Each structure stands twice: as structure tokens, then as C-alpha cells.
Amino acid sequence: MLVYARDQQDLFARICGYFDGAGFNILDAKVHTTRIGYALDTFQVTSPQLEDHYRELISFVETQLALALASDGPLPEPSRGRISRRVKSFPITPRIMLRPDERAQHWLLGVSTSDRSGLLYSIARVLARHNINLQLAKITTLGERVEDTFLIDGSALQQNKLQLQVESELLDAVAP
């Protein structure tokens, strides 16, 4: 799915929240924010509903996603998806890596953990709660493992105490 919209506060979180609430699983995403204030986000999603009625579903998603993006209310709680047997048997220790980029203008956030539904939305909610702007994202699902990279900025990252709080909340959000 491709979303092209004027960039706004919590845009990525609202998109991920819509997919989470609608029962979609995000397998891959690429997020780009333009210099002129637009976002071009692509998502590869799966859903049990896609197989039979995909034409009706496409129209429904377009309408419902537009309504979700127009909402300015609080972000809903993420679903806590079921953990697969593989993840239970071979858990992946969650890792968060946060460091400044080469020019020290933005921050690189790396997340590595076990996959589950609602995971990307949980990450997006933490970033939104701290008013952290998402510039670029590369979301990759490798079987039961997730390797996500984000280019972010925000005033919370400039203060050591808040930065540690963001990292701690991210670890809590990605924990199985």
C-alpha cells in the first residue's frame, strides 16, 4: 500500500495504528519525508481478508485510512499480538541502538527483536509520545526477526535523561 499525504504530527503512528486496528500485519515499510512537507510511505501488508475480497477491501482501506489520518484524537492502544511458537522456543533478545548520524543533524534508531503483530505501531507510539519526527524508515521482517532502522529527530533526543527514557520505553514496547 502506498500513502502519499501532507506530513503531519504522528502521521506514521496513525498509519501503523490503522493497520494494527484493521488486523493487517506490516511486513515491510519504507518511509520518506520530503523537504516540502509531504510523506511518501509504502507498506507491504498481509491480512487473512486479502485473499477473497481484495477489490472491496482496497476501497474500504482507502476510505478508512483517510478517516484515521484526519483524526486528531489520541492514538489508540496497540494490540498485543500473539507470539508464535517459534518465537517462544527461540526468543530474540530485543535490542535498541540510538546514535547520532554522521552529520549530527539526525539520529539513527535501530530496533532488532522478535516479530509480532502491532510491533511497528508500538514503536511509532513511543516516538509520537516524545514528539520525535520520523524522516526515513526501513522496516524489514526476516521470518520471525525484525530489523528496523529509522532516521529521526526531536528535542527529546538532545537531552540525555529524555533520550534514556525514550530508549527504555522502546525496549518495553518491543519486548514480547
By DSSP, the count of extended strands is 7
User: Helical percent range?
Assistant: 25-40%
CATH topology: Biosynthetic Threonine Deaminase, domain 3
Indicate the multimeric state: single chain
- CATH class equals Alpha Beta
Any chance you could write out the topology, listing elements then pairs?
Layout: E1 2-6, H1 11-21, E2 25-33, E3 38-46, H2 54-70, H3 85-89, E4 95-100, E5 107-114, H4 119-129, E6 133-142, E7 145-153, H5 160-174
Antiparallel strand pairs: 1-3, 2-3, 2-6, 4-5, 5-7, 6-7
Helix pairs in contact: 1-2, 1-4, 4-5
Describe the structure.
This protein has five helices and seven strands. By secondary structure, it is α+β, with helices and mostly antiparallel strands. It has a single domain (1-176), classed as 3-Layer(aba) Sandwich (Biosynthetic Threonine Deaminase, domain 3), CATH 3.40.1020. It has a seven-stranded antiparallel sheet, covered by helices on one side. A hairpin with a 2-residue loop joins strand 6 and strand 7 (145-153). The relative contact order is 0.18.
Summarize the structure.
With 176 residues, the protein is an alpha+beta fold. It is 34% helix and 32% strand. The chain contains 5 helices and 7 strands, in the order βαββααββαββα.
List its traits.
176 residues, alpha+beta, Biosynthetic Threonine Deaminase, domain 3, seven-stranded antiparallel β-sheet, 7 strands
